[in-house]
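Lab notebook page, bench 4
Experiment: in silico fold of construct C2
Operator: M.H.
Input chain length: 286 residues
Purpose: comparison with the prior construct
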Amino acid sequence: MLTILFDGVAYGMLLFVLACGLAVTLGLMNFVNLAHGAFAMAGGYVTVVLVNRLGVPFFAALPLAFVASAAIGLMLERTLYVHVYAKSHLDQVLFTIGLVFMAVAAVDYTMGSQQQFVLLPEILQGRIDVRGVGVGKYRLLIIVICGLLSVALQLTLTRTRFGSRLRAAVDDARVARGLGINVNAVFASTFAVGSGLAGLGGALGAEILGLDPIFPLKYMIYFLIVVTVGGASSITGPFLASLLLGIGDVAGKYYIPKLGAFVIYTIMIVVLIVRPQGLFGRVTSR
């Protein structure tokens, strides 16, 4: 049971890093970016090419995947996304879904349709036994990296001047500009970091989840469930929701294999019945 709990926590941490960029853009920037999974896929394929084909060390490929995804996100934000911020959510959904299908076609053409995995170094393969509990080395690395990232992200958004400027720009962009805040630069930086985190999540998850051209469509629902269950008004909500969903998904697939895939949806339904705004979402008055 403890081994299942450990694997569930690792899976939940991975879900958080994959979805936290969407939580930032949706919760703080009020922008529905359903193409978020495409940036995760980009980071995963960058890691596959660097490690499997070019022989770059795995630990060196992780920051490169973050930088590559952040650069792609920044380029698209300045050229495409910036024109959709003021549009309705329906327009944003249609626009980003279109980008997803374009990314799927491009990856299928360039990388092929077969599923690919990252070759891990020998030091990260296998398990270690800790008082009878099987601890996967790679999953332990995921927990450590994702835990540090979640703390850093929360502190950045709540304790730094950049976080204050971001919240001010979201609340009232016109007043923020009057106070001397470069709203465009704040939004661009936020979007780039969110895209980079998605790419890092894709790089870390490539060995566990596998990579194929339909990756953004396959895991889009998971990103949305994490943000919906946790609430989009903070980072704490999606973090706890990721742990809850990760543990529930792993335990469900182990104990009730025939119904395990439905556990994560059952948790979502129960949470939303009790708290429609999510675990840490703000209650809005009508």
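Observations: The first helix runs from residue 2 to 27. The radius of gyration is 19 Å.
Next step: discuss at group meeting.
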